[in-house]
Design goal:
Blueprint: H1 3-12, H2 25-39, H3 43-56, H4 61-73, H5 77-90, H6 95-107, H7 111-119, H8 129-141, H9 145-158, H10 163-175, H11 179-192, H12 198-211, H13 215-231, H14 242-248, H15 252-267, E1 288-294, H16 301-312, E2 318-324, H17 332-340, E3 343-346, H18 352-361, E4 366-369, H19 379-382, E5 389-392, E6 407-410, E7 426-429, E8 459-463, H20 472-484, E9 488-493, H21 497-509, E10 517-520, H22 525-532, E11 537-539, H23 548-555, E12 560-563, H24 572-580, E13 586-587, H25 590-601, H26 604-620, H27 626-645
Parallel strand pairs: 1-2, 1-4, 2-3, 4-5, 5-6, 6-7, 8-9, 8-11, 9-10, 11-12, 12-13
Helix pairs in contact: 1-6, 2-3, 3-4, 4-5, 4-6, 5-6, 6-7, 7-8, 8-9, 9-10, 10-11, 11-12, 12-13, 12-14, 16-17, 16-27, 20-25
Length: 658
């Protein structure tokens, strides 16, 4: 067993054994008492005893490590890291002290500090697989994927059969846009056995294969994923990858099953606060404390949508706090968001417990999750029940499966009440559309088609969704449309080189010249919005629609043709086109979808009228009326709180009749 493994084992179970160093009898007695308390998990008593031992023997490494362990057991990670680091500074060749310090720092989300600690281990100290793996994880979580890849390769050179190392290496390669290589790492991990993590790994494998548009691998991956999901017990408490399920699968029951398992897994790690009843009252002396929790308060799709909504909140009635656990990118959007609220709390690096404790201390009345199970989420915070009422909104296209989140905010199209059994939360419907929009969204003048690399006199069909949304079935329909419309070109975003190569090959196999696909390089949001106006029609995907991208297209004056499915992710664009006044673009099946595209292509006058209508909609449609949206959202929040104030349990809140 390596030093790193020893540290992890000791961090989970017992305290460190005594050294042979001569210490005072009083220090040893305090240490022995601490050990006895630790064995029965009386950690507060253990801390007091170990603190006494370290005061009397400050140069004893083992006493310091025992204190660090006891502090960790109380989730006092910063203090634990400080004590472990003190032990490590006493002996820079002490691999266990180094490992425990890094472990504490990582628990405190101080990943770059953990990496620096590991890199400072004495040159002659043992460095086994576990050391390199832990260093790689710290680098990976600290936003240094290239360096992490090197460390994972070092770990594999020492233990090539470790499935988890292959899996984590795959995650790093994905961050470097090496989709095919990431998928291969996942395949290797699965072949070696990943135990209870199989479902999550299979979901991510299918997702990464789809990101590369490697459809043969993706379809086989989805088949095996379905087998694993079917075998999952209904009451399972294992980690899963719900985002892959909601974007790739069409059965809402399967999506909910995967989400429930992860929600239970996260809840098991929480220590809920005693239920607190809010003392807020309608028309009372104080405002309602409304909090939003997210890692995306920067240049991100979530803020692109809701920036103006935050600015429009009625500060006479609502005290708005943004709890941010994500990066500060220094962008104009970040500065705008910070100004849009009354309180901006930066909680980067904080644990779930620390975040929950801060929210609870602020006496938040209603806390809104804006992440769901997207990257960097903190659904685990809600397991602590830090606010009187909780809701999830906007960030995730499906149920969280968490029975500790009260409401799911949707609308009559995207979350009809007869779909309530697809959600663990109670449905709360906005009267028009669940998605906010920003009338300040950039829309610079369009470039010429030549400047965008487009032919001048052709029908431009834009499919600007990410490649994981483009399935073989979707591409089949698109190629049929290109065959039926010889005057058309398909305009796609070039997200990664692998998806481009695979899509061009698949087009050729379907009898379509690759030259009829025009590739748009990735650009800054304003430049992308400018060129989007050059498209004639936007072709949506299924079972995961365009979301922010669809509202971008409508804002740019481009009609969106979509297909309404049975899941939230497959109904978003339908909600948007209903809200903007073009419900005929929400098609009931794939044949209807294809027929609508062909009819519009052959009726330029009708298409021109739709485009003109969308231009006018920027000023008149409820979809783009941020002030109206905010008032509707606030009214829905007040309905949630009224039930709480009245002593009633959460229940479905149908869209209010205007």
């Amino acid at each position: 067993m390596t030093a790193m493994q020893h540290a992890r084992q000791d961090a989970k179970s017992s305290t460190f054994a005594a050294t042979s160093k001569v210490v005072s009898a009083r220090a040893r007695a305090a240490w022995q008492a601490g050990q006895a308390h630790a064995k029965r998990a009386a950690w507060a008593d253990a801390v007091r005893c170990f603190e006494s031992a370290t005061r009397q023997a400050p140069a004893d490494v083992v006493y310091a490590l025992n204190l660090a362990r006891a502090l960790m057991a109380q989730a006092r990670y910063d203090e634990a890291a400080q004590e472990a680091a003190r032990a490590f500074n006493l002996d820079r060749s002490h691999a266990v002290a180094c490992a425990l310090t890094a472990h504490c720092l990582m628990e405190a989300k101080r990943f770059r500090d953990a990496a620096r600690c590991l890199q400072s281990l004495a040159a002659d100290a043992e460095r086994g697989h576990d050391y390199h793996f832990t260093l790689a994880r710290a680098l990976q979580l600290g936003g240094q994927p290239r360096e992490a890849v090197d460390a994972y390769m070092q770990a594999l050179s020492l233990r090539i059969t470790d499935a988890n190392t292959h899996y984590q290496l795959g995650l790093c390669l994905n961050e470097l846009s090496m989709k095919a290589e990431a998928a291969q790492c996942f395949q290797t991990a699965l072949s070696m056995g990943v135990g209870v993590h199989e479902l999550g790994v299979r979901a991510l494998l299918s997702y990464f294969e789809r990101e590369a548009c490697n459809w043969v691998g993706a379809e086989e991956g989805l088949r095996q994923l379905q087998v694993a999901l079917d075998a999952l017990p209904e009451d399972a408490t294992v980690s899963t990858a719900p985002f892959a399920h909601v974007t790739l699968l069409e059965d809402p029951a399967d999506q909910l099953k995967a989400a429930r398992s992860l929600a239970r897994h996260l809840q098991a790690q929480a220590r809920p606060f005693a239920l607190r009843r809010s003392d807020w009252r309608p028309g009372g002396a104080r405002r309602l404390r409304l909090g939003y929790l997210s890692a995306d308060f920067h240049q991100h799709a979530t803020c692109i949508l809701m920036a103006e909504m935050l600015e429009q909140h009625d500060r006479d009635r609502f005290e708005v706090t943004l709890y941010s656990h994500g990066k500060a990118d220094g962008s104009a959007m970040r500065k705008r968001i910070e100004k849009a609220c009354e309180h901006f709390v930066d909680l980067r690096g904080a644990s779930d417990g620390d975040i929950a404790t801060r929210i609870h201390a602020d006496a938040c009345d209603l806390l809104v999750d804006l992440k769901g199970y997207t990257r960097g989420h903190r659904i685990g915070v809600f397991g602590w029940r830090p606010a009187a009422v909780t809701a999830t909104f906007l960030g995730f296209p499906g149920s969280t499966g968490a029975d500790y989140i009260d409401y799911f905010i949707g609308d009559p199209v995207v979350t009809p009440l007869d779909h309530a059994h697809h959600y663990s939360e109670h449905l709360a419907q906005m009267p028009v559309c669940y998605q906010p929009n920003d009338r300040q969204r950039a829309l610079p003048p369009a470039p010429t088609r030549a400047e965008a690399g487009l032919p001048e006199n052709r029908l431009v069909l834009a499919g600007f969704n990410q490649p994981y949304k483009i399935s073989a079935q979707v591409f089949d329909v698109w190629c049929v449309l290109l065959d039926a419309l010889p005057q058309a070109v398909l305009w796609l975003l070039e997200w990664n080189a692998q998806s481009r190569a695979n899509l061009e090959r698949e087009a050729t196999a379907r009898g379509i010249e690759p030259g009829r696909i025009v590739w748009a390089p990735r650009k800054m949001p304003a430049d992308h919005m400018a060129r989007m106006q050059l498209a004639d029609l936007f072709l949506d995907t299924w079972p995961c629609n365009a979301h922010t991208t669809a509202s971008d297209a409508l804002w740019a004056g481009v009609p969106v043709v979509t297909f309404t499915g049975q899941t939230f992710a497959s109904r978003v664009a339908s909600s948007l086109v209903h809200a903007v006044g073009l419900p005929e673009l929400a098609c009931s099946d794939i044949e209807h979808y294809a027929r609508t595209v062909v009819e519009l292509a052959h009726d330029p006058d009708r298409l021109a009228r739709m485009r003109a209508m969308l231009v006018a909609a920027r000023d008149h449609s409820p979809l783009f009326d941020s002030r109206r949206f905010t008032r509707d959202f606030e009214a829905l929040v007040l309905r949630m709180m009224q039930r709480h104030v009245d002593g009633e349990t959460p229940a479905a809140l149908p869209a209010a009749v205007a």
